[in-house]
Amino acid sequence: MIPLLHIVMLLVSISLTSALSTTLTPGNSLSVEKEGDYLVSPNGTFTSGFYNVGSNAYCFSIWFTNSVDKTVVWMANRDGPVNGKQSRLTLHESGNLVLLNADGSIVWSTNTQTQSNDAGVELRLLETGNLVLINVAPDKNVRNTMWESFDFPTDTLVASQQLTRNTSLVSVRSRGTYLSGFYNLKFDDNNVLDLLYNGPLLSSVYWPNSVTTIFYSGRAPYNNSRIAGINEIGSFISSDNLVFNASYYGVGLKRRLTLDYDGILRLYTLEDEGSWKLSWRPGGLEACMVQGLCGVNGICSYNPLPTCVCPRGFNRNDPSDWSKGCSPMFNFNPPLPCGDPGDPTDQLDFVEHPKTDFYGYDLDTYEAGISLQKCRSKCLNDCRCKGFGYALDGQGQCFPKGALRNGYRTPGNRIITHIKVPKGTLISSKEDSNFQVPAAAAGALNCSNKQLFVDNSSVQVQDGQTRQKNKNGYMKYLIAFAASVAGIELICFGLGWWYVFRNPSESIDAAGYNIALALGFKRFTYSELKKATRNFKEEIGNGGFGTVYKGVLEDQRVVAVKRLEGVVQGDTQFWAEVSIIGKINHRNLVKLWGFCAENEHKILVYEYVENGSLDKILFKDSSSTWVLGWDQRYNIALGTAKGLLYLHEECLEWVLHCDVKPQNILIDAHFEPKVADFGMSMLFKDGNDTGFSRVRGTRGYLAPEWMMNLKIDAKADVYSYGILVLELLTGKSASAGVESENECSDLVELVTKMIREEQVEKIIDPKLQGKYNKEQFKRMVEVALLCVKDDRNARPAMSKVVHLLHGHHDESKSDEDIE
Q1: Where along the chain is ATP bound (predicted)?
Q2: What's the pLDDT at 190?
C-alpha cells in the first residue's frame, strides 16, 4: 500500500536525486519538489537550489555545501517564500531568469534580456559562490555577464565579493528567520562604511561610534571609490581605510562576513568538521550598544549574556520580537498639565533605574551643575521630557530625554535614569520582573477627586480637595531626602561589613553577587532549605546532576529542592549561569524559583509538579488499573515540543537541554508536561565554551553525533525527543536493554522492523487497547521517524515538529492515513 511504502522510504531515508549540474540552460527549470535539483559549483564548495525556511516555505538560495547547517550566503526571495509544491526557477529563451510560485505568479526575476537572437544564455554557479547569468556568443569565445548574485548581496559577503556604493548587507530579522531585518552595512554619503539601524520609526548609525570623530576611528572620508571586500587570505580592505584580518589567516580557508540578526558584523571561518569559528568582530562594539536591539522603551542588560527587559510599569509589545519594544501599562488620560502654574507633581512621579541610560535622545541640557531635585522639577514641567538621567559623578549632570530609546544597563554605568509615570503607578523599587501595577493604574489615571500617591509603606488614598501646599515643603523634602540617603548608606555599609566579615573564608565577587540580586527569584540560605526539607528527608528523584527533595517553604509553597553534585564553578560563574535559567519562563518548562550558593552547597529550588515524572506513569506495570490515555500522550508530546521550541528558538539565550528523556518530563495536576533540568549543561560545563568534551545524556536517548565527537547543537535534543515520542507510542522504554553508549536504541530498530513487516498496528502500546486517534498517531509516527534520523541535517527543527503535530503536513508527503 502507498502509505506503507511512504513510511518505509521515510525510515531508510532513500534519496533519489537527479544529477547535479553546474549550469541551467534556456527552457529548463529547477523544481522545488525534486530533491537534489541543484546547481553546484565546479569543486562543490557552493550549492544553489530551493532552501526550506519554514512550513511549506522555500527560498531560492546559495549555501556552503559542506557546512554542518548548510549556511546560506544569498537568497533571491527571502521576503517572499514560495510554495513547496509546483514552484520552480525557470530560464527563458529571452534570457530572463524567473522564480514562479505554485500559482504561476512571478515572485522574483533578474529582469534581463539577451542582446542578440543568436546568443545563448547559461546560468552558472561559480566556485566563488557567485551565481551568474552569462550571454554566450555562437562561437563560444565571447561571454558577457548579464546578471550576477554578487551585485545583490543579502546578509553575507564571501571571498572576492565586493560591497560597493550601490550595495549593502541587510541582517535577517531574528534568529532562525530569513526575513530582512533592520541592520545595514553600507557606505554613507561621506564614503565611510557604517553599521546602521534602519528601523520602522528611526534610522541611525551605531558603528563607528558617533561620539568620536571619523578620523579618530582611523577612517578616511576623502575618497570616492566606496569599495570593500574580503580576499582569499582573510583580509578585509575598504576604501575608507577600514582594514582587519581573520584570526585564522591564510590561503585555502572558506570564510564569510555576515551581518547577524543582533546587528553585529562577524567574520567566520569554516573548520574541517563543517562548523564555523568566529574570526573577527568590531572592536569596542558591545552588544547592548547596538541600537534598536530591545526596541522603544526597552533596556538591554548583561545577565551575563545580552538580555532585554522592560522598565517597571511597561509591558513587552510582542513576545516573539524584542525589536518592537515595550509599552507603558498606564496612559495619561486626560492629558496631564506641564509647564502649568499649578503643581504637576500632584499627578506625576518618577521611577528610578540605577546604572541605566537611554542614549541618543537627550534634550537640551537644562543647565550645568544642576541638582537632582532641580533636574527632576524641570522635567516634570517640560512636556517633551519623558524622563531624565542623572550622573553620580559629582558634577551635577542632568540629561533630559525626549524619547526612551537605546536603553542599556551596565554594572559600571554611573547614571540613574528616572522615567516619568503617573503618581501611584509604582509602590516600590522592585526589580522589573517582580513589578505589579495597582488596579487603579493599570488602565488609566484615577480621574476622581481622590488621587493615588506613593508612601513608603503602602498606596494610600487622600482627598485632593483637602491637600494643602506647605510653603516650607520644598526644604522639608530636601532634608528628608538627604536623611533617607544617609540612612540607607549607613544600613548598606553595616550590612556589607557584617556580610564580609561574618565568614572570612567566603570570598564573594561583587559583580557576581549583583547578578544574583538582580534575578526575579530568591537567594535562599542553606539553613532555610534544610528546614524546608526537614533535613533533606523526603527524596522524590535522583539523577546524574543530583538528588531532588520535596520541601515546604515558610510561605507554605511546596517546592522541589535539587542538591547539585559535581559543580566545580565558583560562586560568580554559578550565579551568572543561574541568572540565565531563572529568566526562562514558559508553561511547558519547570519554573526555577530560587537558588542557594554557600561554599560547597549548590542548590536549585523549583516549583513542585504534582504527578512526578513521565517515566513513572508511562511505564507502569500492565496490571495497573490506571493507564495513560491517548489524548494525554498526544498532549504530552505536543507540550514537550513547545517547551523545547522555546529553549531552542524563542528564548533570548539559546539553551540546549542535552538530556531529554521521560525522567525529565514532569506532569502537573492537569496533565500538562513540563520539561525539567534544562540549563544543566551550563552549570556543569567543563570550561570549553565551544562545545562539550564528554558525552552528556542518557543511554538510549543519545544522538549519534555524541559518539562521533561532533559539535553538539539543537538537533541532538531533537533526536532525544524523537525517542521520547516512540516511547509514548509503544509504551516501551528506550533505555531498557541498552548496555553501552555506542549501542543504537533498540526501540528505533523495533519500530523499523514493524513497519518493514507491515505490522504498523503493533507499534501502538497494547495497554491502550486499540483506543487512539489514527490521524494523530500518523503525525506522531512521522515526527518520531524524522527526529531520529542519523543525519542531523535531515532532522526537523522543533518549530517544524510543532507544526507537524498540529496537522500542518509537509506538502511533499502523502496525506493518507496509516492503516
Answers
A1: 562
A2: 80
